[in-house]
Amino acid sequence: MVQLDNMLEVHHIKKHYQTKNGPVYAIGDISFKVEKSEFLVIVGSSGAGKTTLLRILAGLIEPTSGEIVFRGQPVVGPPRAFAVVFQDYVRSLYPWFSVHRNVELPLVNLISDRAERRSLVDQMLERVGLRSQAHKHPQELSGGQQQRVAIARALAYRPEVLIMDEPFASLDAQTRSDLEDLMLQLKRDSGMTVIFVTHDVDEAVYMGDRILVLSRSPSTIATTVATSLPLPRDQITTKALPAFSAARTAVLTAIREQSSA
Ligand SMILES: Nc1ncnc2c1ncn2[C@@H]1O[C@H](COP(=O)(O)OP(=O)(O)OP(=O)(O)O)[C@@H](O)[C@H]1O
């Protein structure tokens, strides 16, 4: 029998927000498990609770009930082993610090040796193709470059789990596919686990090993689609495979069923 290494377990998460107009029921009841080194993608219509779920997974907000278990331990705050990249990279970078300093900051309390820390930052900036821009400030870079800085910062931290909330949503198509491929390559090299939210079904199928489709809120998991696409992926040949269109059809059908439900 195949032994699965479930590093993260989500047990019956429910979440409602208290507002002045009464409770908003965001997450109905969600349970799933994530294997080590898996690339798990979460899709669902607007307002389905994707960001809420990611924030709970990252230990940033508490669920109303249910439990997240990471390596056998309940998550009660942001775990050291997790890093998060949000869509809003402009606000996630410090404008008054250089690119290099932005990537270095989260490492200050982790790596006390300054030379070692700076060398790791240089390596990460090299990986995302920004070594020559290290001295600049974020606002001097393009949107795609700023998002690369946010990715370099998350990866320099060497997380076991990287949580990404629509990280490429506001980028042009070419930059987006370049960053998709960069992320897949970095993930393959590091063996980290990725949990990734997107609105884009093609991106979900291209990136994911498995896709969770959420129902409308209060959300549950409507369907799970395993992609079974060969690695490494390629923007042209992978998307021409029958398995790609089969997975795409399965995800789109589930989303359509939810929006007409
Ligand atoms: N802080 C909050 N207070 C009250 N309600 C909230 C809060 N955050 C989210 N909600 C509500 O919870 C529900 C789920 O929101 P969430 O942002 O998690 O959905 P989403 O699937 O990420 O949406 P989108 O795809 O549009 O970003 C929505 O009805 C939203 O209005």
TrEMBL record:
InterPro entries: AAA+_ATPase, ABC_transporter-like_ATP-bd, ABC_transporter-like_CS, ABC_transporter_ATP-bind, P-loop_NTPase
Domain ABC transporter, first and last residues per copy: 2-241
Domain of life: Bacteria
Molecular-function annotations in GO: ATP binding; ATP hydrolysis activity
A Pfam family per the record: ABC_tran
Family: Belongs to the ABC transporter superfamily.
The protein, known as: NitT/TauT family transport system ATP-binding protein
